Amino acid sequence: MQPDISIIIPLYNEEESLPELVAWIERVCREHKYAHEVILIDDGSNDNSWDVIKQLAVQYPVVKAIKFQRNYGKSPALYEGFKAARGAVVITMDADLQDSPDEIPELYRMIIQDGYDLVSGWKKVRYDNAVTKNLPSKLYNAVNRWLSGIKLHDMNCGLKAYKRKVIKSIEVYGEMHRFIPVLAKHAGFNKIGEKVVQHRPRKYGVSKFGWERFINGFLDLMSIQFVSRFGKKPMHLFGTLGSFMFLTGFVFVIWLIFDKLSNNIPLTNKPAFYISLTTMVIGSMCFLTGFIAELVVRNAADRNVYLTEEKIGF
What we know:
Layout: E1 5-11, H1 18-31, E2 36-42, H2 49-59, E3 63-68, H3 74-84, E4 89-92, H4 104-112, E5 118-122, H5 130-148, E6 160-163, H6 164-167, H7 180-186, E7 192-196, H8 212-230, H9 234-263, H10 271-298, E8 308-312
Parallel strand pairs: 1-2, 1-4, 2-3, 5-7
Antiparallel strand pairs: 3-8, 4-6, 5-6
Helix pairs in contact: 5-8
């Protein structure tokens, strides 16, 4: 029997918050009479999170769990969760209690009744540090909106709801969990909505993410834009770039020859020639090398193979 909702929770060292979170989810789902499953993905925790999960699985039969042998990251955890989910609506949330399970009914309604393919949470009022998290997050999301064309204020919010066919039609790998709306859009799911959600102060532990996520996120966004546009037609990129560089170089050579004939100044006497040539060559090599590497990674047979140590409920 297909559940109404699959709730996927990736986690890393969240032993203190898990009992409270699962109890809260159960209370909300019982009140609204949802047939549901809770899928906990332990991303190689080194605390007692897995022991807590095993106890919760005994207490709540709806709890299922996967434990990674080591820490892979949030995208692999979501990938395994998406693969296992059976619900008509799939909801993801973080395990640190900063996402409120009370948002589940409205997210479910927006998918089922309003017909959205994907609904992303927007933590309009945040309790994070204004300098180290809030300001970089706003800049980061502004760049995302500009590059992707998707008008979401908080694309990286962990609290999201999806139609089942959305998560079965996309593939998250590396650190692409930040850009699931972009992946969904490129897969043809254009009805993407947003809901203001409550952001709660962290009750236990500390954040597992640092400044590097903004740099990595920007690079991932550039990668996904290129792969989505040119992954199946790389000649459109290489041909356009190559033609532009060839014509630019040809015009530049004609101008240098004309200047040499007019003023009798050797080409080697112009530092600008070497600077321009070196910049173009290095820039082209770096860009093309990175793009080709991204294509290789995306098409690697083992890009989404993760070692699991134990499973519960499957």
